[in-house]
Amino acid sequence: MNRMNAYSKRLLKKLPLVASYLQRRHQRSRFSVERSLINGTHHNENRHPSIIHFSVHKSATQYTKNILRRCASQNGMVPVGVPDYAFHTDFPYLDRLSATEMRKYQHIFKPTGYLYSFFGGMIEGIPALEAYKVLLMVRDPRDALVSHYYSLAYSHPAPEPESGKYAEFMNVREMARRLSVDEYVLARSDGVYGTLDRYRKLLLEKYPNTYVTRYEEMTADFETWLNRLLNACRLIITDELRQSLLDENARLKPKGEDVHRHIRKGRPGDFREKLRAETIDQLNAKFGPTLEIFGYAWEGLRR
Questions:
Q1: What is the mean pLDDT of the segment spanning 50-69?
Q2: What is the Cα–Cα distance from 120 to 116, expressed in whole angstroms?
Q3: Which of 5, 25, 261, 276 has its CA 20 to 30 A from that of 224?
């Protein structure tokens, strides 16, 4: 019995090491393309212009990414998830780097054959960006802020503990749970404003051919949104895949609100129900001109 207990204790001590090894092996397999691009060893002969998907967090980013991956794969392109790799490892988020810091990672971006999806902020220093099909998907920042609060506090999965980003994520999650939704959106509003303003200055003003689409267009008429997205990216898909995407979209629409689901509610204008009038006034004052740039009304929404 004593020998069995000693063996059990030794086995238990080794389990974290085994789990860590298995996790690392899984990450190597899952992110083999990303690792090869970072190492400069990945090549693809496909000549379709590469696609870069920029977005604002909580603008159906994962959903749009998955649609693009399936459609791009049918066109012989290679999907790349650099931000996903960064989320699960100690690799940096490229949109947080300066143009100087980005120089060592420029080789990751190739102008043909790849889908880079998605980035939650503008990246400075991508060579020959004008040769890419550049997509920017946005959402009313007032709704995006509310959605981010519920996602961070309740539903977003945490990064792997070994990634180096776990502690930061959990600290921010605890902060969100201590704050009311009004307090949270006001605390984060500067960051979202900065993201949109960088897109304006560094993307829209420099690369006017950027295709801008909105979350609200997707939720209002998914089929039209999908057709326009495919045309902008020059992607041709089979009738079977198109119908599958339409059917899946119909099934995914929430029947009601559930804060623990990734798709919590999915209806534009949620900020009017969740935020106090004075909070909305402060957001309108901050985002007013930016809302107009991206096609959102704001004067009529003041209370």
A1: 96
A2: 12
A3: 261
Nearest CA-CA partner of 51 in 29, 73, 84, 36 = 73
Query: What are the φ and ψ backbone dihedral angles of 126, each rounded to 5 degrees?
Result: -80, 120
Phi-psi map region of 56: left, alpha, beta (phi>0 left; psi -120 to 50 alpha):
beta
Give the homologous superfamily in CATH for domain 31-301.
P-loop containing nucleotide triphosphate hydrolases (3.40.50.300)
Sequence-distant (6+) residues with CB within 8 A of 277 are 303
Per-residue pLDDT at 23 exceeds 60: no
Instruction: Measure CA of the first residue to CA of the last residue in the chain; give whole Å.
Output: 73
- Rounded alpha-carbon distances, angstroms, from residue 63 to 37, 68, 90, 262, 289: 24, 9, 24, 10, 28
- Tens digits of residue pLDDT in 217-263: 999 999 999 999 999 999 999 999 999 999 999 998 765 545 545 44
Residues in Cβ contact with 31 at an 8 Å cutoff, skipping those fewer than 6 apart: 81, 84, 85, 88, 89
User: How far is residue 181 from each of residues 148, 150, 151, 271, 291, measured CA to CA in Å?
Assistant: 10, 8, 11, 10, 21
For residue 158, which phi and psi values (nearest 5 degrees)?
Answer: -80, 155
Q: Which residues contact 60 (CB under 8 A, 6 or more apart)?
A: 137, 139, 215, 218
Alpha-carbon gap, residue 280 to 291, rounded angstroms: 13
CA atoms within 13 A on the CB side of 276: 10
